[in-house]
Amino acid sequence: GAVVSQHPSWVICKSGTSVKIECRSLDFQATTMFWYRQFPKQSLMLMATSNEGSKATYEQGVEKDKFLINHASLTLSTLTVTSAHPEDSSFYICSAYHRGQNEQFFGPGTRLTVL
Amino acid sequence: GNSVTQMEGPVTLSEEAFLTINCTYTATGYPSLFWYVQYPGEGLQLLLKATKADDKGSNKGFEATYRKETTSFHLEKGSVQVSDSAVYFCALSRRTGANSKLTFGKGITLSVRP
What we know:
- The complex is a heterodimer.
- By secondary structure, chain A is mainly β.
- Chain A has strands at about 5, 10-15, 20-25, 30-40, 45-50, 55-60, 65-75, 75-80, 90-100, 105, 110-115.
- Chain A is built from no helices and eleven strands.
- In chain B, a hairpin with a 2-residue loop joins strand 7 and strand 8.
- In chain B, the strands form three sheets. In chain B, strands 2, 5, 6, 10, 11 and 12 form a six-stranded mixed beta sheet that branches. In chain B, strands 3-9-8-7 form a four-stranded antiparallel beta sheet, with no helix packed on it.
- Chain B starts with a strand and ends with a strand.
Protein backbone atom coordinates (compact mmCIF):
# COMPACT_ATOMS: atom_id res chain seq x y z
CA GLY A 1 0.00 0.00 0.00
CA ALA A 2 0.90 3.67 -0.26
CA VAL A 3 2.27 5.64 2.66
CA VAL A 4 0.98 8.87 4.17
CA SER A 5 2.85 10.64 6.93
CA GLN A 6 1.86 13.37 9.33
CA HIS A 7 4.07 15.78 11.21
CA PRO A 8 4.22 16.32 14.06
CA SER A 9 2.75 13.23 15.67
CA TRP A 10 1.89 15.26 18.73
CA VAL A 11 2.09 18.92 19.71
CA ILE A 12 1.37 20.96 22.82
CA CYS A 13 0.82 24.68 22.48
CA LYS A 14 -0.40 27.65 24.46
CA SER A 15 -3.83 29.13 23.96
CA GLY A 16 -3.80 31.86 21.31
CA THR A 17 -0.93 30.47 19.27
CA SER A 18 -1.15 28.86 15.83
CA VAL A 19 -0.13 25.33 14.99
CA LYS A 20 0.62 23.82 11.57
CA ILE A 21 0.17 20.13 10.83
CA GLU A 22 1.62 18.58 7.68
CA CYS A 23 0.23 15.67 5.69
CA ARG A 24 2.49 14.10 3.06
CA SER A 25 1.94 11.35 0.53
CA LEU A 26 5.39 9.76 0.47
CA ASP A 27 5.31 7.56 -2.62
CA PHE A 28 2.43 8.84 -4.71
CA GLN A 29 0.84 12.06 -5.86
CA ALA A 30 -2.50 13.05 -4.41
CA THR A 31 -4.74 15.68 -5.99
CA THR A 32 -7.25 15.18 -3.18
CA MET A 33 -6.55 14.97 0.52
CA PHE A 34 -8.97 14.97 3.43
CA TRP A 35 -8.71 16.28 6.98
CA TYR A 36 -10.58 14.62 9.84
CA ARG A 37 -10.95 15.32 13.51
CA GLN A 38 -11.49 12.61 16.10
CA PHE A 39 -12.65 13.07 19.67
CA PRO A 40 -12.11 10.33 22.28
CA LYS A 41 -14.42 7.38 21.69
CA GLN A 42 -16.02 9.23 18.77
CA SER A 43 -16.00 8.68 15.05
CA LEU A 44 -13.79 10.54 12.62
CA MET A 45 -15.48 13.76 11.55
CA LEU A 46 -14.60 15.11 8.13
CA MET A 47 -13.48 18.73 8.38
CA ALA A 48 -12.57 19.56 4.81
CA THR A 49 -11.55 18.27 1.43
CA SER A 50 -8.26 19.63 0.17
CA ASN A 51 -7.72 19.87 -3.59
CA GLU A 52 -4.30 20.62 -5.03
CA GLY A 53 -4.12 24.08 -6.52
CA SER A 54 -7.55 25.21 -5.38
CA LYS A 55 -9.39 26.23 -2.25
CA ALA A 56 -10.41 23.60 0.25
CA THR A 57 -14.05 22.61 0.61
CA TYR A 58 -15.12 22.82 4.24
CA GLU A 59 -17.89 20.82 5.89
CA GLN A 60 -20.79 22.61 7.46
CA GLY A 61 -19.94 23.99 10.87
CA VAL A 62 -16.17 24.03 10.33
CA GLU A 63 -14.67 27.52 10.57
CA LYS A 64 -12.51 28.06 7.50
CA ASP A 65 -10.75 31.04 9.04
CA LYS A 66 -9.77 29.00 12.03
CA PHE A 67 -8.68 25.85 10.24
CA LEU A 68 -6.60 27.00 7.29
CA ILE A 69 -5.85 24.35 4.69
CA ASN A 70 -3.22 24.66 2.00
CA HIS A 71 -2.61 22.01 -0.66
CA ALA A 72 0.18 23.65 -2.58
CA SER A 73 1.74 20.52 -4.08
CA LEU A 74 0.68 17.04 -5.11
CA THR A 75 2.34 15.50 -2.07
CA LEU A 76 1.68 18.00 0.72
CA SER A 77 -1.34 19.44 2.45
CA THR A 78 -1.15 21.51 5.61
CA LEU A 79 -3.71 22.28 8.28
CA THR A 80 -3.09 25.37 10.40
CA VAL A 81 -5.11 25.80 13.56
CA THR A 82 -5.11 29.55 14.14
CA SER A 83 -5.46 31.16 17.56
CA ALA A 84 -5.85 27.75 19.13
CA HIS A 85 -8.00 27.28 22.23
CA PRO A 86 -8.37 24.31 24.58
CA GLU A 87 -11.53 23.19 22.79
CA ASP A 88 -9.42 22.68 19.65
CA SER A 89 -7.52 19.91 21.44
CA SER A 90 -8.16 16.77 19.46
CA PHE A 91 -6.70 14.07 17.24
CA TYR A 92 -6.34 15.28 13.64
CA ILE A 93 -6.07 12.72 10.85
CA CYS A 94 -5.44 13.22 7.15
CA SER A 95 -5.97 10.93 4.20
CA ALA A 96 -4.76 11.11 0.62
CA TYR A 97 -6.52 9.72 -2.43
CA HIS A 98 -4.41 7.40 -4.60
CA ARG A 99 -5.97 7.54 -8.05
CA GLY A 100 -4.24 4.45 -9.39
CA GLN A 101 -5.41 2.27 -6.51
CA ASN A 102 -8.74 4.09 -6.14
CA GLU A 103 -8.28 4.18 -2.40
CA GLN A 104 -7.77 6.67 0.41
CA PHE A 105 -4.64 6.13 2.49
CA PHE A 106 -4.56 7.52 6.00
CA GLY A 107 -1.86 9.19 8.04
CA PRO A 108 -1.18 8.07 11.63
CA GLY A 109 -2.71 11.23 13.09
CA THR A 110 -1.54 14.24 15.11
CA ARG A 111 -2.48 14.75 18.74
CA LEU A 112 -2.98 18.46 19.48
CA THR A 113 -3.19 19.66 23.07
CA VAL A 114 -3.89 23.33 23.71
CA LEU A 115 -3.14 24.54 27.22
CA GLY B 1 -27.94 13.00 6.16
CA ASN B 2 -25.69 9.99 6.06
CA SER B 3 -24.81 8.15 9.24
CA VAL B 4 -23.17 4.92 10.37
CA THR B 5 -23.97 3.13 13.60
CA GLN B 6 -21.66 0.52 15.11
CA MET B 7 -22.27 -1.73 18.06
CA GLU B 8 -20.88 -0.57 21.37
CA GLY B 9 -17.52 -1.86 22.46
CA PRO B 10 -14.98 -2.83 23.47
CA VAL B 11 -15.03 -6.48 22.48
CA THR B 12 -12.74 -9.05 24.05
CA LEU B 13 -12.46 -12.53 22.58
CA SER B 14 -10.27 -15.56 22.98
CA GLU B 15 -8.10 -16.66 20.10
CA GLU B 16 -9.95 -18.74 17.48
CA ALA B 17 -13.34 -17.39 18.56
CA PHE B 18 -15.94 -16.26 16.02
CA LEU B 19 -16.24 -12.51 15.53
CA THR B 20 -19.22 -10.40 14.51
CA ILE B 21 -19.17 -6.62 14.60
CA ASN B 22 -22.47 -5.02 13.69
CA CYS B 23 -22.77 -1.99 11.44
CA THR B 24 -25.91 -0.33 10.11
CA TYR B 25 -26.20 2.76 8.00
CA THR B 26 -28.55 5.50 6.91
CA ALA B 27 -28.05 7.01 3.49
CA THR B 28 -29.93 8.09 0.41
CA GLY B 29 -29.35 6.23 -2.80
CA TYR B 30 -26.79 3.47 -3.05
CA PRO B 31 -23.70 4.18 -0.97
CA SER B 32 -20.45 2.27 -1.02
CA LEU B 33 -19.58 0.59 2.27
CA PHE B 34 -16.20 0.07 3.90
CA TRP B 35 -14.49 -1.46 6.90
CA TYR B 36 -11.26 0.15 8.05
CA VAL B 37 -8.86 -1.19 10.67
CA GLN B 38 -6.45 0.79 12.82
CA TYR B 39 -3.63 -1.11 14.48
CA PRO B 40 -1.93 0.49 17.50
CA GLY B 41 0.22 3.43 16.48
CA GLU B 42 -0.74 3.23 12.81
CA GLY B 43 -3.12 4.99 10.43
CA LEU B 44 -6.43 3.56 9.28
CA GLN B 45 -6.15 0.88 6.61
CA LEU B 46 -8.87 -0.30 4.28
CA LEU B 47 -9.86 -3.83 5.27
CA LEU B 48 -12.62 -4.50 2.75
CA LYS B 49 -15.36 -2.79 0.79
CA ALA B 50 -18.56 -3.39 -1.15
CA THR B 51 -20.03 -1.05 -3.71
CA LYS B 52 -23.48 -2.50 -4.41
CA ALA B 53 -26.20 -4.52 -2.77
CA ASP B 54 -25.43 -8.20 -2.09
CA ASP B 55 -21.72 -7.67 -2.76
CA LYS B 56 -19.44 -9.45 -0.31
CA GLY B 57 -16.14 -7.85 0.59
CA SER B 58 -13.42 -10.09 1.98
CA ASN B 59 -9.82 -9.80 3.10
CA LYS B 60 -7.53 -11.53 5.62
CA GLY B 61 -10.31 -13.92 6.63
CA PHE B 62 -12.77 -11.09 7.31
CA GLU B 63 -16.03 -10.84 5.39
CA ALA B 64 -18.94 -8.39 5.18
CA THR B 65 -22.02 -8.50 2.94
CA TYR B 66 -23.84 -5.37 1.74
CA ARG B 67 -27.46 -5.92 2.83
CA LYS B 68 -29.66 -3.18 1.46
CA GLU B 69 -32.87 -4.62 2.89
CA THR B 70 -31.51 -4.36 6.42
CA THR B 71 -29.13 -1.44 5.67
CA SER B 72 -26.33 -3.42 7.27
CA PHE B 73 -22.70 -4.33 6.63
CA HIS B 74 -21.72 -6.58 9.52
CA LEU B 75 -18.09 -7.69 9.79
CA GLU B 76 -17.36 -11.37 10.50
CA LYS B 77 -14.37 -13.63 10.94
CA GLY B 78 -14.53 -17.30 11.69
CA SER B 79 -11.42 -17.54 13.85
CA VAL B 80 -9.74 -14.46 15.27
CA GLN B 81 -6.06 -14.19 16.07
CA VAL B 82 -4.19 -12.07 18.59
CA SER B 83 -2.86 -10.03 15.66
CA ASP B 84 -6.44 -8.96 14.86
CA SER B 85 -6.48 -6.79 17.98
CA ALA B 86 -7.20 -3.29 16.67
CA VAL B 87 -9.90 -0.65 16.28
CA TYR B 88 -12.44 -1.33 13.52
CA PHE B 89 -14.39 1.42 11.76
CA CYS B 90 -17.39 1.00 9.48
CA ALA B 91 -17.81 3.77 6.89
CA LEU B 92 -19.81 4.76 3.83
CA SER B 93 -19.46 7.06 0.89
CA ARG B 94 -22.16 8.21 -1.45
CA ARG B 95 -20.17 7.46 -4.57
CA THR B 96 -18.07 4.49 -5.65
CA GLY B 97 -14.90 6.49 -6.16
CA ALA B 98 -12.58 6.48 -3.18
CA ASN B 99 -12.00 10.18 -3.62
CA SER B 100 -15.45 10.86 -2.25
CA LYS B 101 -16.20 11.83 1.33
CA LEU B 102 -16.36 9.12 3.97
CA THR B 103 -18.78 9.01 6.89
CA PHE B 104 -17.48 6.89 9.76
CA GLY B 105 -19.00 5.04 12.68
CA LYS B 106 -17.52 5.47 16.15
CA GLY B 107 -15.22 2.51 15.88
CA ILE B 108 -14.95 -0.50 18.11
CA THR B 109 -11.90 -1.84 19.90
CA LEU B 110 -11.27 -5.56 19.55
CA SER B 111 -8.90 -7.31 21.93
CA VAL B 112 -8.02 -10.96 21.31
CA ARG B 113 -6.53 -12.98 24.17
CA PRO B 114 -4.10 -15.84 23.53
